[in-house]
Structures are given as C-alpha cells and as structure tokens.
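User: Predict structure, ligand glutathione.
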Amino acid sequence: MKRDPPPAERQAQEEDAGEQKTPLWIFGYGSLVWRPDFEFSSRKVGFIRGYSRRFWQGDTFHRGNEKMPGRVVTLQEDYDACTWGVAYEVCGEQIAASLQYLNMREAVLGGYDTKLVKFHPQDKEAEEPILALVYIATPQNPTYLGPASEEDIAAQIIVSSGRSGHNIEYLLRLADFMRYFCPQVEDEHLFSIEEALVSILPCLCQAEEPLVEV
Ligand SMILES: N[C@@H](CCC(=O)N[C@@H](CS)C(=O)NCC(=O)O)C(=O)O
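Assistant: Predicted complex:
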C-alpha cells in the first residue's frame, strides 16, 4: 500500500506543483488596515506585542511629496505595548501576488522593511497566536522623520497629500478603525493627533458611522 508522504515532502510536492497550501498571514496597522488592495482569503482583527504605533515615518509618495512629506505610521519597539490592526490570510497564488504588490507599495515606495511577528487574534480564547509578516519603517530608512509633538504632526498632516490621497484621510480612517473595531483600546498617540487636527479644523468632527469596513 502506498504510504502518504511526510508533511514536509507533501508541502515540497505541492510547492513544486505551484499549489502552495500553507497560508501566509500579513499584519497591517496603518493604511493596510483600511486599504489592503491585494486579494486575501480571510482577515482577523487583533494585535502584536512589543511595539507602539507612531506617526514617525515620512511619506513622499502616497500622502506627501519631496517638498512636503506626509506622515504615516511605523512601529517603535516598546516591550510593554501592543499594536492593534488587521491580519490578512493569503493562500496559493495570492501569496506571490500580495508580496509583489506590497514590496512596491511598502518597501520601494515607502521605505519599509519586513519582519515576522506573533499576531494575537482578538478572539484569543478560541485561537492560537499566528506568525505574520509585518512592514516596519526603521530609523535607518531615508524618509524616516522620527518623534515630534502631536500638534506638529497634526499640522504636517493637514498640509500634506500625495498620489494615494490626503494625509488627513490616512489619519481619520485609522482613528475610525480603532474607534469602531478596537473600542477597548486607548491609542493615546493616534487620538491625540486626531484631537489636535480637529482643534485646528473643527469641521472634521468624528463620523457617525464607521468609514472602514473589516
Ligand atoms: N506598514 C503599515 C503602514 C503602511 C502604510 O501606511 N504604508 C504607506 C506607504 S508610505 C502606504 O501604503 N500608504 C498607502 C496609502 O496611504 O493609501 C501597515 O501595515 O499598514
């Protein structure tokens, strides 16, 4: 009787046949939360430990330009912190397609590097942590801006826009996601920038309904 090949051999055979069965998970915590723009099989809201989300990455393409860079988020190592977002499961041909797309959007155009992290689904009682790929802009990348006061960050966001739209949209959609999908989380950095921005532009009061679908 023919024996089933061991898992590693079976995976190798599947890979040879281009039928990658093991999914890849990609964790988003900024624009990927509300604009993944790649095909995925499923998604989960949850968090990663050991990082804080900070508007410390400059952006001269998507939400700014060379003269007036926008500000987008990256992750700062922070042992006691958690960052909430969305993990996307990509399978089969979705894996190569999503990585090719994100390499251009995040790495080439955005200055982000990749790292593997442990993602904790918000329904953690029912689910084990999942290894996920995340894009992080380190202080060594050429468009890194680093810390600034929330007021200065808000002022920079107000005057910046790029090929993907206004920097205000980027901030408000992320704040919106956190308010509606992670209401238990107090992201002081994010919401104090939103507050500073609304104090400068009172017309941008909070939306009644979520702008983001997950
Ligand atoms: N890597 C973070 C941040 C991603 C991010 O915001 N990257 C910028 C590149 S500078 C982007 O894709 N912007 C697209 C947009 O602003 O719509 C994430 O996982 O969401």
